[in-house]
Amino acid sequence: MRLMTPLCVVAATVLAACTAAPAPEPTPTTDYTPPAWMAQAQESAERKAVVMRSCLEDAGVKLQVFADGGELSMSGDSGTSDATDEEIKARDEADQKVVARCLAEVTTAFPATEESNEVRYDKMVQTAECVRANGYPEIGEPPSRAAWVDAYDDMNIDLWSPYRELYRLHPDITEDTWRSLRTICAEGGVSYSLIF
After folding, report:
1. What single DSSP character describes residue 1?
2. How far is the C-alpha of 89 from the C-alpha of 76, rounded, in Å?
3. Is the Cβ–Cβ distance between 6 and 107 less than 8 Å?
4. Beta-carbon neighbour count of residue 60 at 10 Å?
5. Which sign does the torsion angle of CA 9, 14, 20, 21 carry?
6. Global pTM?
7. Residue 63: predicted pLDDT
8. Alpha helices in the chain (DSSP H)
9. Which residues contact 153 (CB under 8 A, 6 or more apart)?
10. Most exposed among 49, 59, 70, 144, judged by the fewest C-beta atoms under 10 Å?
């Protein structure tokens, strides 16, 4: 079984010289209503973010914490540029211990609900529908249920995700556009986030 952590972040770096012209602003479909679970996931992530932010601040760790697509995400930098490599490494290791402790606190306060791979697939399909309806009709169709469910437990396979597909098609997507879309279309199935 693929283990899902409250913090699922994939780093993506795009060199400015290699990017295409900015994508036009998406045009949402007016007759689409996201499924209720998406708003519930985003609301839950926002409550988790409050607990996580408080825990990190109490420990003096300066990370931004926010709800991202119905999940908890964090970002920050490694500190001042005048620190030595050893100092940065030591601070990062100490921060990681605090993050792990705070994530455990969040997990205790908000226990995860186990879902079957079939339910994850259904949510992923609904996420794709939501992304398409919110201005990205070019997002393709996911693989078959059987193929996706069979691949879910294989840690060596990158599962199809509507957000991975969106980034593949629009590597120049802005942080504001990404976060705005993920507020509406919570991610179900598999997590794919960007670090801007």
Report:
1. -
2. 15
3. yes
4. 9
5. positive
6. 0.75
7. 87
8. 36-58, 85-109, 117-133, 145-152, 162-169, 175-184
9. 1, 2, 117
10. 144
pLDDT in tens, 56-84: 999 998 888 888 877 877 877 655 567 88
Amino acid at 107: T
Tell me the C-alpha distance between 125 and 37, whole Å: 13
Q: Are strands 71-75 and 64-68 parallel, antiparallel or unpaired?
A: antiparallel
DSSP states of 83-112 as a string? Answer: S-HHHHHHHHHHHHHHHHHHHHHHHHHSPP
Contact partners, residue 74, CB within 8 Å, separation at least 6: 7, 9, 52, 63, 64, 65, 66, 99
Question: Which residues, listed in sequence order, are joined to residue 7 by a DSSP beta bridge?
Answer: 72
Q: By C-alpha distance, which of 111, 113, 107, 127 is closest to 189?
A: 127
Task: Indicate the DSSP class of residue 115.
Answer: -
- Backbone torsions φ then ψ of 68, nearest 5 degrees: -135, 100
Give the other-Cβ count within 10 Å of 62's Cβ.
10
Structure-block tokens of residue 87: 């100092």
